[in-house]
Design brief:
- This protein is α/β, with parallel strands linked by helices.
- It has two domains: 15-179, Rossmann fold (3-Layer(aba) Sandwich); 195-318, Rossmann fold, CATH 3.40.50.920.
- It is 35% helix and 20% strand.
- The chain has eleven helices and 14 strands.
- It has a seven-stranded mixed beta sheet with strand order 3-2-4-5-7-6-12, sandwiched between helices. It has a five-stranded mixed beta sheet with strand order 9-11-10-13-14, with helices on both faces.
- Strand 6 (146-148), helix 6 and strand 7 (170-173) form a beta-alpha-beta unit.
- Helix 1 packs parallel to helix 6 (153-165), helix 3 (67-79) runs parallel beside helix 4 and helix 7 (212-219) packs across helix 11 (306-318).
- The radius of gyration is 19 Å and the shape is globular.
Amino acid sequence: MINSFFNKNWSKSTKKSIRDGYGDALVELGKNNPQVVVLTADLSESTKVDAFKKAYPDRFFDLGVAEQNLIGVGGGLAATGLIPFCSSYAMFSPGRNWDQLRNSICYSNLNLKLVSSHAGLSVGPDGATHQALEDIALTRVIPNLTVISPLDYHQAYQATLAAADLLGPIYLRLSRSASPQITCPETPFTIGLAQTLTYGQAVTLVSTGIMVSECLKAAAEIDAEVINLHTIKPLDISTIINSCKKTGKLIVVEEHQQAGGLGSAVLESLVGAGFLPPKIKLMAVPDQFGQSGTPEELFAAHGLTWEHIIQAFHDLTLIT
């Protein structure tokens, strides 16, 4: 049974890009908050900040192909009391500017928002060099840094508005591909609070970002409780524990390397809380680089489709 706060007809909804939610929210923020400024590294159209550029050209800065400088300038603006949103691809940011993010931004706890699109396998034809499968691992280990991964357009919109209101550095992880609209404009969103999308008794499926829709497809065939972990840090472990106490089985699904990703974060938190469900499966990229292909082809190649989730559930069920 799907939670009443979510779109019951999500599978038939018009697909929209998650990154578009970010771009549209920026324009709204620009209208209501004069402290908001936007920076990019020569990727204004691809990261969907071009509408902000047109609406507020005096609050927009293109730093060129220089991601380390992007963070340095953004940090300087944050130190003056502004709220910089720094936009690039996840492969380049935090991929190329992790040092600046750690030492210049997070160590000083500056109010900078690092927003990166093209994360995960869903970048598709761009191939391994542009498929950031390590960014969750890179960001969640840095003190003071909040890590958010919205699942669709509406949630990206809400997350962007919420990021502007939360003091401190934030990493906002976005996908490029269009995805179904699982949430609605009125769906509640709170940073740090997981969302239970469907209720079930047989297994707990935990996911984030674009992979949540694959979990929902699986839940249409099995009695699964689906949890959207849109905030990876801080992680709402109590919602997961309460679900696992009921189901006894946990499957974590992500388009990221298995090492250091969402699954690792969940297991670390479960151990810290002194609770482990008896049956656990992590579904992620198994220590491999991505490759070129459509998102659907890549999910299938790496065992991350709803059919694979159902098979993982049946495999867990057979374990005694």
